[in-house]
Specification:
- With 178 residues, the protein is mainly α.
- It has one domain.
- The chain is built from 8 helices and 4 strands; from the N terminus they run ααββααβαβααα.
- The mean pLDDT is 90.
């Protein structure tokens, strides 16, 4: 049922948000010359996939975890996109093709060894990674792997259709209230 809803929600989002996606695409094109950022991430069953986001950093920025990047590398439009989380919209494509879910643990980078170890301990790689989840709503990033894995574990331990829908609703309300 969750996968079915992922397909419906991501397809609906891509269709209805396409004007917004095009506007952001062209803003990022003028800002950096390369509007999309594609990065290898670790997903379900430790399978890697290419995560798609709108580019928020300068082209010469190293491909590392966001919390480790110098803030001066964030572009003008990138600041707004990050604040509003609109840089995440292209991940609806990742959801549509099955690499991700709308709700789940955030996908990590292959170089985030400590986070991978913590997620393995909690068996979090048996779930599709998500665009949103409990950790994101609580404001946690990947800078503390132990806490992140604990929050993701608690979310997935109690995962249900109602929790899935509740976390989507909370994400939408958080976006509207920005």
């Amino acid at each position: 049922m969750i996968r079915f809803l992922d397909i419906i929600f991501s397809l609906t989002g891509l269709i209805f948000l396409s004007p917004v996606l095009f506007i952001i695409y062209f803003i990022c094109l003028f800002d950096t010359g390369s509007p999309l950022f594609i990065q290898e991430r670790v997903g379900i069953n430790l399978k890697t996939f290419m995560l798609i986001k709108f580019r928020t950093m300068k082209l010469d920025t190293k491909s590392i975890a966001t919390h480790l990047v110098d803030k001066s590398k964030v572009t003008f439009s990138g600041n707004l996109l990050r604040f509003t989380k609109l840089d995440e919209l292209p991940q609806l494509w990742n959801v549509l093709v099955g690499d991700m879910s709308i709700v789940g643990p955030r996908p990590c980078l292959k170089i985030q060894k400590k986070l991978i170890i913590e997620k393995k301990k909690k068996k979090l790689f048996k779930f599709r990674p998500g665009i949103t989840g409990a950790a994101q709503l609580k404001g946690f990033d990947m800078s503390n792997p132990v806490i992140l894995a604990k929050i993701d574990f608690e979310m997935m331990k109690n995962f249900s259709l109602s929790l899935y829908l509740l976390l989507i609703l909370k994400t939408i309300l958080k976006f509207i209230n920005k």
